[in-house]
Amino acid sequence: xxxxxxxxxxxxxxxxxxxxxxxxxxxxxxxxxxxxxxxxxxxxxxxxxxxxxxxxxxxxxxxxxxxxxxxxxxxxxxxxxxxxxxxxxxxxxxxxxxxxxxxxxxxxxxxxxxxxxxxxxxxxxxxxxxxxxxxxxxxxxxxxxxxxxxxxxxxxxxxxxxxxxxxxxxxxxxxxxxxxxxxxxxxxxxxxxxxxxxxxxxxxxxxxxxxxxxxxxxxxxxxxxxxxxxxxxxxxxxxxxxxxxxxxxxxxxxxxxxxxxxxxxxxxxxxxxxxxxxxxxxxxxxxxxxxxxxxxxxxxxxxxxxxxxxxxxxxxxxxxxxxxxxxxxxxxxxxxxxxxxxxxxxxxxxxxxxxxxxxxxxxxxxxxxxxxxxxxxxxxxxxxxxxxxxxxxxxxxxxxxxxxxxxxxxxxxx
Length: 414
Prior knowledge:
Elements: H1 8-32, H2 34-42, H3 44-67, H4 74-104, H5 106-121, H6 123-141, H7 150-183, H8 186-191, H9 197-229, H10 244-260, H11 265-305, H12 310-335, H13 343-358, H14 368-371, H15 379-409
Helix pairs in contact: 1-2, 1-3, 1-4, 1-11, 2-3, 4-5, 4-9, 4-11, 5-9, 6-7, 6-9, 7-9, 7-11, 7-12, 9-11, 9-15, 10-11, 11-12, 11-15, 12-13
């Protein structure tokens, strides 16, 4: 029963797994109690107790691996471990990314940090988060009647839910926060300090955008879990629930996981954790793609919030969203229409081309072409495409913010 005590591979594997988990927890433990964390580092006795605690966790992992060493579900337990590790890494990112921003841009970063914290505290944030999680799991059990492609349909809907949740929160937060501070004269108090209007507006946008990113990343954890169990709700087509990009990510990551863990049960457990981390990485590329759309529309909402009230701003952003998706379709339809020479068709085509030129090309941010396809899509080719589209979204966002700064410079705040 206690044979694992004499198995060096199990003990070493348990210690490695414990060390990885503890190292991932150190940043947010420091954020919770910085003074106590520093005191622990300076006190040899406290450090000794800390090391003993890590060893105890490692022995616990070794005992679990020894007890479940012959279990066929060891990889599933590893996936649970990988899920907790991934969430800890996200918490580290959520805590320290704003502070790094304040080091690079002190004034705008201070405003961004305040807006970021305000976004987390809003009940709206957690209501949208709960709605996104619930909608994703409802989509798991819905029948799609796609003749074997229900898994692809669900995955596409899952990414759309994340995009809509991020867009809804970002638009509402920017419209309400900036407009209320301007109308309530709070912005005057902020800019009475050595903070310019440029730093105020850019800081607000970055803070709200970081809160949107946090919301999308949290929802991505739920989507990964839902994609794991979705095939079991359609046993007939379970063998067709295949996603090539996560599988390619697993092939890239698993050799590295196997190289740092001893052979045996620890490797099986670690490969399960690698499965979750690889799938999360592949899904992060999709999150990055749809987040470009959120970035552009939040930038437009931020720019318009300097002049327009909340309701009008929301309506304009919704119109940009619909026309941005609809304009390219109308252009293609009018060009191939048999009545293309008529005056009415030419007018419609002119308006569609105008919208297609001025509005953002939101069709570039769709995940459906990457999901619903007959041939597999290479992971790194898709990563290159995501990088290119992200560059486009940054460029359009910069233009929208410049227009917002022009509108804000002439705004009377008194």
